[in-house]
Amino acid sequence: MKYILLLLFLIPVLSFSQNFEGTLVYENDIEIAEKFSKQLGMTKEKMMESGQFFEETLTTYKNGNYLSKPNKGKIKVVYLSERNEILTIDKKSELVPAIKAEIDLETELKEKSPKITVEQTDEIFLNIKCSKVIVEWETGTYEYFFNSDYLKMDSTLYSNHKYDMWSEFLKLSNSLPLKIVKRMDGMMTITMTLKEIKEHSVNDKIFKLPKLELSKEFVVTKGNQVYYEKK
């Protein structure tokens, strides 16, 4: 939950009868808690200037893999199901930080799973009425809005993706989110609202990673982080 870039992932749409393949464009917004903002001197404008926050996120899905990137900048986040890692790749950096997706960090540290519920809502996005999955950790709450008749996705493709409770959300929704609200208590709230759906064939080349080796300088023995360096 600590990576702001990872926290970031209107036209009428049709119901898809199989797993969605293509790109979803989300409009992002952020509200920073006043005390947290004053302590760190952090504002939305400063975060945008430093490349920590982007107004749009484009996420492309295919066969259990996804690539997420901002509308501007040279950073991309890649998830490959065979590695089960979420890698942040910056063209300007030789260091590639990664998240072990099989680990939900708070669950591991506190040995307590979050509370997960499903609720009906009156929320409508892209003319679609939504339900929502609510994930409640001790440090914050996520809300995933969905409609199981749209943006269908086989949950088994992401069965090992425990990070952000993505696998649990998909088990309940069997579809991709139309809106995501991520509340980190005392820090900030990030909202991602779907604004455009682009159904298209995806070339597997977009998921290709540079050659990587484990970093000898940045070594983490606990938690869900691992660091690589480009060869």
Strand and helix layout:
Elements: H1 4-7, E1 22-32, H2 34-40, H3 44-49, E2 56-62, E3 65-70, E4 75-80, E5 85-90, E6 95-100, H4 105-110, E7 115-125, E8 128-136, E9 140-146, H5 166-173, E10 179-184, E11 188-199, E12 212-214, E13 225-230
Antiparallel strand pairs: 1-2, 1-11, 2-3, 3-4, 4-5, 5-6, 6-13, 7-8, 8-9, 9-10, 10-11, 12-13
Describe the protein.
The chain has 231 residues and is mainly β. The chain has one domain (4-230). The protein is 13% helix and 42% strand. The protein has five helices and 13 strands. A 13-stranded antiparallel sheet has the order 7-8-9-10-11-1-2-3-4-5-6-13-12. Strand 3 (65-70) and strand 4 form a beta hairpin. The longest helix is centred in the C-terminal third of the chain and has 8 residues, at 166-173. The chain is globular.
Number of helices: 5
What's the overall geometry?
Answer: globular
- Give the beta-strand count: 13
Structural class estimated from helices and strands: mainly beta
Strand order of the largest sheet: 7-8-9-10-11-1-2-3-4-5-6-13-12
Separation of the first and last Cα atoms: 29 Å
Helical proportion?
Answer: 10-25%
Low-confidence stretches at least 5 residues in length (pLDDT < 50)?
Answer: 1-6, 9-17
Radius of gyration: 17 Å
Mean pLDDT: 89
Order of helices and strands: HEHHEEEEEHEEEHEEEE
State the domain count: 1
Beta-strand share of residues: 35-45%
Characterize the largest beta sheet: strand count, sense, and whether it forms a barrel.
13 strands, antiparallel
